[in-house]
Amino acid sequence: MHRLGSSIVRHSKLYLFSFVGLILLSSIWGFQAFGNLKGGGYDNPNSDSALVTEILQNEFGEDPAEVIVLVDLPSEASEIGPNQVPVHFDLVQELSDEFAEVDGVKQVLNYYTLGMPPSLVSEDGKLIYVLVDLENDANQSEIVTQLVDQYTGDFQGAQIHFAGFRAVTKAINNTIESDLIRAETIAVPIVLLLLILVFGSVTAASLPLMVGGLAIVGSFFVIWVASGITDVSIFALNLVTGLGLGLGIDYSLLVVNRYREERAAGNPVPEAVANTVASAGKTVVFSGLTVAVVMLSMAFFPQYFLQSFALAGFAVVSIAVIGAIVALPATLNLLGDRVNSLKVGRGDLAPKERGGWEKIARFTMRRPLPVLFVALLFLASLFSLSSQVSFGQVDDRVLPKDSPAQVASNLLRDRFAGRESSPIEILVQGDSTAIADYVAELELLPDVVRVSVVPQEEQTEWTRLAVISDIEPRSPAGYDQIVEIRSLESDLDRVLVGGSAAYYTDSQQGIENALPVATVWIFVSTLVLLFLFTGSILLPIKAIVLNILSLGATLGLVSWIFQNGYLQEFIGEYSVTGTIDTSSVVMIGVVAFGLSMDYELFLLSRIKEQHDAGANTVNSVAYGLQRSGRIITAAAFILAVTFGAFASSGVSIMKMLGLGIAIAILLDATIVRALLVPALMRLFGSANWWAPKWLRNLYEKAGLSH
Q1: Is residue 33 scored above 80 in pLDDT?
Q2: Mind listing the pLDDT tens digit for each residue in 513-533?
Q3: Could you tell me the fold of the domain covering 411-505?
Q4: CATH fold of the domain at 66-163
Q5: Residue 158 forms beta bridges with which residues?
Q6: DSSP helix/strand/coil, 678
Q7: For residue 463, what are the β-bridge partners?
Q8: Is the pTM of this model over 0.70?
Q9: Other C-beta atoms within 10 Å of 246: how many?
Q10: Domain named SSD: which ranges (predicted)?
């Protein structure tokens, strides 16, 4: 790393302008990514439910209705006029005809043209369906926007509402895009103010924002490229923004602070920059590698919602690392001591050898067992809040309560018998007797409203059954019902179960199946990287165990808040479903684990530095916490502000993601780093640095100790 630092000193302008130039050039395409991103991605494409949808499309020629339009009539839909025609027939038909004239609309069906089936009218008889199918090659997002904007509200005395997958997805996308701007508007000024307070200089405070901003813009380009190849979730934008700004600040704090120490020690600017890259730069590289490989664990899950985070996380971390070890040192070399210009207060230009963090460390190490007991008891009490955790999946209720898409979806729930808009689709193969027996078994199941054999014109070996249930499809109860249906014994040759409830069940099972693999990936890669950094076996194991404890506490708080609807007076109203989204919990866990390792490396780098110089465990830990405690706390607080700003979002899972990650970061930087790490390292003593002889020799021969 010292060689890289020396090269940066000699060619600062080349390194800086090349990096910035490439990022700015990529922005030409990067900002086009916004229009390519999608709002779904929670389902498992390698499942029976996905196969059912494929068969319905290919063999039955049926696509699910892209848009469900609910027409709230002034009187009952079945009311007949003097001419023996339903009173509202002309109104509904005129609305349907107008929909059909829109470019990209494939077909429009309504309650009357379908023969007035009971399934398409509400229990009070006033709310009916109009189903709109869109052409596959059409710009469906634009069509939905056009229909919603033009027709929501009054139409000849009837009230028009839009529901269905496309309407909900469009509403989520629009809300997130506007919320992202609001979150940045909230976070950036606060972060800049905090950076000025930390550095005591406007110039120095602007450097972390530069690194973070460039990482964000560069990651947009990666997302744009990926979105042309595969589906990418719109939620990836939030991760890029939060991580880009947060890690840019984390790494910049480490680098700039180390540079100031080098200058305070009397080293000239070129030597200070080279030494900074060699020391802090190594920490940044290992930290970035650790966070990046942890982010990649989400690629093991089948849902592209999580795969998008793996891509976005890896991209933004990689670019933030390059910016921190290349562009930032080049800037410091060009600025010299002018990095401290535009002073506002004292800042921390030369950290003291002794101070508050050292006192905390020594206090903790004098009483390691009591501190350990109290800290673990606190984390355990928070984890106990998750005893009643219940997992669900994203649906329209993540939107603000007054969102037209959620209002329409609530009409479906409240005024129709059963879940008419989301039947359980079952495809079977077998003789007529076996099918009849199977239908009879289905009708006996609890919460099943009815089972019908769907007429079909196409020649196919499949028979299609539609099961209407009273259960919310994307819920634990819906999961249990699908498991029960799939466990039914029959004489059929083959049974495939699909529909919304089955999509949810298969998604949950996909996460359950991938979780062990992702966990092993995280643990093994973290153990390897932390060993390569420290030369110790015990320290990586300790780091993983402590991270698990803080994540458990975070899960407890998050489930307690969002399952019960707490804190709405502070973070805004949201719909309480009694569940929390499984995919979002996975993401919170992965991101928080990666960021916790970030701070672990910050602390261990300073502890190891003193230990390698010959200090004992107590003095090494005290020195390390004194040198890094302020940086870790400042970085954690700023990162918590960055992610916490997402709690202002109108989309409830963004509230949960932002608040959950912020909670995890603050717990880790305070309880774990300030109390548990010093206490455990004091108890372990010299064993902290133990490794088998053959691994120690490998570590020394590879030159990783320098």
Answers
A1: yes
A2: 999 999 999 999 999 999 988
A3: Alpha-Beta Plaits (3.30.70)
A4: Alpha-Beta Plaits (3.30.70)
A5: 155
A6: helix
A7: 428
A8: yes
A9: 30
A10: 195-334
